[in-house]
Amino acid sequence: MCLGGGFDGGRSVSDFQAQLEKARGILPLRRVIEQAGKAPANGKWNRFPECPFCHEKQKAGVFMPDSDRFELFKCFQDTCPAHTAVV
Question: At CB < 8 A and 24+ separation, what contacts does 12-21 make?
Fold first, then answer.
């Protein structure tokens, strides 16, 4: 399946997914957050003392969903600039 004539250069979705998995292996989410200077001060990745984007207390964390093999960042504040809240 090809993504079309946009910026993908004719590569397939499976090619993109393979490259994304490789990138996650090289630089996992926690490392990206650390490099951006946004790691939780208390070291508790599942419950940040404050969201690094909107600064709301106890609203954000990094978690591993049951259906995936990689971690995700989530903030439950609707107005967070990370745009991860479910509305």
Answer: none
pTM of the model: 0.67
SS3 4: coil
Q: CA-CA distance, 64 to 68, in Å (whole number)?
A: 7
Tokens of 72: 């995700």
Could you report the per-residue pLDDT of 30-81, keeping only the tens digit for each?
A: 998 999 898 888 888 999 999 999 999 999 999 888 877 788 899 999 999 9
* Whether the Cβ atoms of residue 43 and residue 52 lie closer than 8 Å to each other: no
Q: For residue 35, give the 3-state DSSP assignment.
A: helix
Backbone angles phi, psi at 59, to 5 degrees: -115, -10
Q: Running DSSP on this structure, what letter comes out for residue 2?
A: B
Six-digit token pair at 19? 């490259």
**Segment 18-27 long-range contacts (CB within 8 Å, at least 24 positions apart):** 24/70
